[in-house]
Specification:
159 residues; mainly alpha; Arp2/3 complex 21 kDa subunit ARPC3; globular
């Protein structure tokens, strides 16, 4: 994936995440498209591109989307650190992408929970996991299914 294609994907995800999804997804738990993009780019193209995307996406999400700075950045960086060692070792099939995105969404949830706990908040782990993060991880996995073919390297499409 070229830098231009990565920037274009980032711009598309930015507008969909912050302009379109709030109207299409009025519920409390929309998919985290930045997380899905970060997982798949790291899985398909390596840790260097994933790290840059995590830095830009995490800072952007923290500045635009939340009032707690660092919560997205920390979880995206953790996802890149966990995905980089397996890049190239997993088959690039849609079911692997969906499963890995689900697992990395739960890792991001654990990092988010830890950041909230260290900041002085008292979220209940069971309720937070069951009520917020499991549904979001499932939705993120569905988004990974949609993004898989779009982000798959050209040399592997059609296999």
């Amino acid at each position: 994936m070229s830098t231009t294609a990565l920037v274009t994907a980032g711009i598309v995800v930015f507008f969909v995440q912050y302009s379109l999804l709030p109207f299409l997804w009025p519920g409390a738990y929309p998919p985290d498209l930045w997380l899905v993009l970060t997982v798949l780019v790291t899985l398909f193209y390596g840790g260097r591109k994933g790290l840059w995307l995590a830095l830009v996406a995490g800072l952007g999400a923290d500045i635009v989307g939340t009032n707690f700075f660092g919560i997205h950045l920390a979880s995206y960086l953790a996802v890149v650190c966990a995905t980089s060692p397996v890049e190239g070792r997993l088959q690039r099939r849609w079911n692997i992408s969906v499963m890995w995105t689900f697992v990395m969404s739960l890792l991001a949830a654990a990092v988010t929970f830890a950041v909230l706990r260290f900041s002085g908040a008292e979220p209940a782990w069971g309720g937070y996991l069951a009520g917020v993060e499991l549904p979001r991880a499932t939705i993120n996995a569905g988004a990974a299914w949609l993004f898989h073919q779009w982000l798959l390297p050209d040399r592997e499409k059609g296999r």
